[in-house]
Design brief:
Strand content: 5-15%
Number of helices: 5
Mean pLDDT: 81
Strand order of the largest sheet: 1-4
Structural class: mainly alpha
Order of helices and strands: HHHHEEEEH
Number of strands: 4
Distance between the termini: 24 Å
Shape: elongated
Radius of gyration: 19 Å
Low-confidence stretches: 5-10
Oligomer: single chain
Length: 151
């Protein structure tokens, strides 16, 4: 894994190796910035599973929940929103690539629950990074820092 090699090199701070590791990692980073969410979830799943000593409870469920959230994200972002009905619900016009029709009425309560679910998923992804023994980037939480913070 290119990213793990880069982090390992950065921790050792050997200037002669950093450039090579960065060049190796750059395509992975570029892909992460432009890939579809479903592919990013697949990559995340693969990377965590390849990290043999990760102790992450219910990881299969987390991945399934991430995929479900990605499907909902696609409907919310790409669906054609209709005017709300008398109950304050809007039914999106959205059909996915499998020709499945999204027909769930959306109201404020649905959006608030979606927000809570996404927050929980994000926290679980952060926890999975620390479960692999790394400190989540940008935090002061538990785990081994991926970089020493020196600029």
């Amino acid at each position: 894994m290119a990213c793990c090699r880069l982090f390992h090199v950065l921790r050792r701070s050997r200037d002669d190796e950093i450039e090579g590791a960065y060049e190796e990692w750059l395509p992975t980073l570029e892909k992460a910035l432009s890939d579809a969410l479903g592919r990013l979830i697949d990559t995340y799943n693969k990377v965590v599973r390849e990290h043999g000593d990760a102790q992450i409870g219910d990881f299969d469920l987390l991945v399934a929940d991430l995929k479900e959230a990605a499907a909902l994200r696609n409907a919310l972002c790409h669906g054609s929103w209709r005017a709300p009905n008398d109950a304050g619900q809007s039914v999106l016009f959205y059909v996915n690539r499998k020709k499945e029709i999204f027909d769930t009425p959306i109201d404020i309560a649905f959006l608030e629950q979606t927000q809570k679910s996404v927050t929980r998923l994000a926290a679980n992804v952060v926890s999975s990074v620390t479960a692999m023994g790394y400190q989540f980037p940008g935090s002061t939480g538990p785990g081994e820092p991926l970089m020493d913070g020196k600029a």
